[in-house]
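Exercise 7 asks you to align residues with tokens for two separate proteins.
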Amino acid sequence: MKHHISWKVSLLTAMVSAAFSVSAAVVPENARLAEVQKLVRGNDAEVATLDPANAEGLPEMHVLRDLFEGLVIQDKDGNVIPGVAKSWSTEDNKTFTFYLREDAKWSNGDPVTAHDFVYSIKRAADPSFASANGWYLKLTKIKNIQSIIDGKASLDSLGVRALDNHTLQYELENQVPYFVAMTAHSSMMPVHKEALAEYVDKWTRPGNMVSNGAFTLENWVINERIELIRNQQYWDNDNTVLNQVTYIPFESQTAAMNRFATGEVDITSDVPTAMAPKLKKEQPESYTVVPLLCTYYYAFNTTKAPLMIRVFARRCLIRSCGMLLQTVLLR
């Protein structure tokens, strides 16, 4: 199945090659930078959480990729590139060793170490934490992670260890050639152990959060805005162009488009379908369509009428879904 999502980019954003992606900006040689390096992004909705281990939706991912950085990240073309890990190695696709940057730091100046990653993955896998991304972590095939999440094995048996402060090793149960790419997911990002211990369930609030990405959390007004400022401790800060990123949640595509049209928003991630042809024709420099790799599923309640009592209704539903799938695949 193919699904497309539209991104609208203002001239300001295009000029600065803004770091709204998950890698540092590469400014074209002849580019003229805006005097104020501030980006305002329309987000699809209010974020449900800023805890990487529990984030599930795109609104959360947009913000978290600015705040936190995993072992690897992605460039603007979706290629896996070094993040906190400057390199990695494996001989059998079952044991992966990551070599961390010595200059990677948290926003409070503490060094980012392999122990941070061990703590964070164990926290996410802990059944008492009940991460919303437990299903994803099971797919990594890290040794014993499924049994741990299911409460059948101890956290100490998890196949991850810090060989030293800057060397991290994962042991998998099966060969997973794409494991390195999987470490870019938010559930495998590091969190600051001391900040969580001090602030407990309030650690994601402004003033409490300690992050290791290109930006830090400055302000968060629920259903109004999230403001991030440049993280001066970030290892690649010299190549960060923006000084501030503001996320504004929009439940309505039309509202987001109107704010973009008036210049209040520099970029938004979706537009009303009916407006797409007009935008493509009248604003080709600002309208871009990119593919989004994703999976959709629908769960039907078979415990209530008519699906519970009418076999015919269930058969019709199955046939309709089959016809829809064939239509999509033939496109």
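Second protein for Exercise 7:
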Amino acid sequence: MADYIEPKLASGFKDYLPEDMIPRQEMFDRIRAVFENFGFVPLDTPGLEKDEIITGGDPDFKMNVWHASIKDDSEKMALRFDLTVPLARVVAGNPDIKKPFKRYQIGKVWRGERPQAGRYREFVQFDADIVGSTSVLADAEIIAIMNATMIALEIPNFLIRINNRKILNGLTEYAGFSPDKNSAVLRAIDKLDKQGWDKVSTELCDAKIGLTSEQAEAIKKFVDLRAHTPIETLDAVEALMIKSPTAMNGISELRELVDAIKAMGVPDEKWKIDLSIARGLGYYTGPVFETVLTDILEIGSVFSGGRYDGLVSKFSAQSVPATGASVGV
């Protein structure tokens, strides 16, 4: 028997030797330069947070996170799964930060997911967020940063897909199912790109979610809506969901956002309104966006985010609006 420990990595982790790190560092530098060119300033936070910070005190928290503890210490801790929740904690704990606060952060995050090709349990995220602004101009600036970042990385074939969680929250009024099922319905819709409609429909109608076939078909009609221009898409969904006040609010926001994106100079061919975009994280409250590589759609979103106006209030009595996006490397 060998008298040494096999030098084998844990599943879902990766070493980056110099031949890997040199081009990665160049990529990091390009992304950082874009963020700073837009006037964002750096922030850093610990990789380890109190468990209640990471979960937001939510007993139904669904993300698989890495929990940690120290022997003979009762404090429960967890590794961060993104950089947005720690940002919300920082803003809540430092109310004097001048706003709007445009910050970027680069750091490792950890997710207890099953490893897949190209997806690891530990990876680097680059975040850009604007905290303290309710204006759609802030959302449009984040989308402009996403566009500029992809250009800086010399990735020509990409598309930024945009939706609004208020429209998605209006599905309960439109399709006629109970609001307490909405989170599960949105998590199912979020799998549409990877699993296809048949599997999503099966999940929607299984015993756990329990939609009827008619309700699932109404959702399919919604996510299948297509038109030639963003305004035509919004006109079509407005006609479909006219009886949902919640959806009407989201449609109105997207009409403003369309004008703001155009004012930011993002080329029309690089973005679209896509009603199938749900974003799985529950803290999103308004516009949401995902960037996909049009040559390899099967890998899913590579740069995504949205508006999360309620997250800071989980850690403070103050309500602070925020929007942002992150790219994983």
